């Protein structure tokens, strides 16, 4: 798939990340696409829901499974603004997503290439195709801006 196709959906994920930031959440947005249609969306809601598992990816995966009424997302792509953590990477593998596209890498908690590479681990029963760095500068800038503001407030 070409970069502009991925950029279109990453841009929409960035809008969800901005919504998270506006609500005081770490700005991460995610969506699941199947046959060029968005079937699940999510943005971080950890603080609002008081739930450490309410990451953008987890919410988008749950919404997508509900939409197509299955626990597997075999022909789907997950777009997320930040490299998923190990918890989310596990959910990506268990939901059998075909592809993961992310923007910024996470050198502190990345589970898809930076620290761990859970989604491509051959010892697991499913591996996920990974495309990284789509709109990376925009995704990183939003995160940096959020944390800078947090430190100055």
Describe this structure in words.
The N and C termini lie far apart (42 Å). It is built from 5 helices and 5 strands. The longest helix has 20 residues, at 3-22. Strands 2-1-3-4-5 form a 5-stranded mixed beta sheet. Helix 1 (3-22) packs parallel to helix 5. Helix 4 (86-94) links the parallel strand 3 and strand 4. The model has no long low-confidence stretch (mean pLDDT 96). By secondary structure, the protein is α/β, with parallel strands linked by helices.
Descriptive key words:
alpha/beta, globular, 153 residues, 5 helices, 20% strand
Residue-averaged pLDDT: 96
> Level of helix content?
40-55%
Figure out the total of helices: 5
Q: Strand order of the main beta sheet, please?
A: 2-1-3-4-5
State the total count of DSSP E strands: 5
Q: Which ranges are low-confidence, i.e. pLDDT below 50, for 5 or more consecutive residues?
A: none
Taken from the alpha-carbon principal axes, the silhouette is globular
The N- to C-terminal Cα distance equals 42 Å
Range of strand content: 15-25%
Q: SSE order in H/E notation?
A: HEEHHEHEEH
As a whole number of angstroms, the C-alpha radius of gyration is 14 Å
- The structural class is alpha/beta
- Give the biggest beta sheet: 5 strands, mixed
Give me the secondary-structure topology:
Layout: H1 3-22, E1 29-34, E2 37-43, H2 46-49, H3 56-68, E3 76-82, H4 86-94, E4 99-104, E5 129-132, H5 136-152
Parallel strand pairs: 3-4, 4-5
Antiparallel strand pairs: 1-2, 1-3
Helix pairs in contact: 1-5
């Amino acid at each position: 798939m070409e970069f502009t196709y991925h950029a279109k959906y990453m841009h929409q994920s960035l809008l969800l990340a901005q919504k998270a930031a506006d609500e005081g959440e770490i700005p991460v947005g995610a969506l699941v696409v199947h046959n060029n249609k968005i079937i699940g969306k999510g943005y971080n809601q950890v603080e609002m829901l008081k739930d450490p598992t309410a990451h953008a990816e987890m919410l988008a995966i749950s919404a997508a499974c509900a939409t197509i009424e299955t626990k597997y997302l075999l022909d789907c792509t997950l777009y997320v603004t930040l490299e998923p953590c190990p918890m989310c990477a596990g959910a990506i593998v268990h939901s059998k997503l075909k592809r993961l596209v992310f923007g910024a890498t996470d050198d502190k908690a990345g589970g898809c290439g930076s620290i761990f590479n859970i989604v491509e681990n051959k010892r697991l029963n499913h591996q996920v195709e990974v495309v990284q760095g789509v709109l990376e500068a925009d995704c990183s800038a939003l995160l940096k801006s959020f944390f800078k503001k947090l430190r100055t407030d």
